[in-house]
Predict the 3D structure of the following.
Amino acid sequence: MIQIVTTGGTIDKVYFDANSEFEVGESLLPELLSESNIHDGYQITGLMRKDSLEMDDADRELVRHTVASSDYDKILITHGTDTMAETAQALTAIKDKTIVLMGAMQPARMRRSDAVFNLGFAWASVQLLPAGVYIAMNGEVFAAGAVRKNLKAQRFERT
């Protein structure tokens, strides 16, 4: 069984009309899982709906506490990409679980989003990787503490 924790981020952003900005909306995760033909073997915990740039240390502590106190040893976390590496680093003290963070560069509601691919990749990663904290994005796995987001290239890279 895998616990999926949603925190918001671009993957869940909604664009309401031509005069508004993107806002984090209801998670599309159940729909994305179904589209990926994943129908069971998980529990979803909707923890927060925030842009990762708005997350602070208290939010990261809530994520850490939720993961540390989980009965599951495999945890998948949906997260905004801008501060995903910081949250991953905050989870590294948890040693007995496989924790994978994932997100999307484009909202899942957009036609050309990487959300479904990233979800499937992260789903496989959390089942195959040994205990530790990882970021799984765009076909690559990065260890927490050794990754950063390259804003200009819009991708993650090893540090």
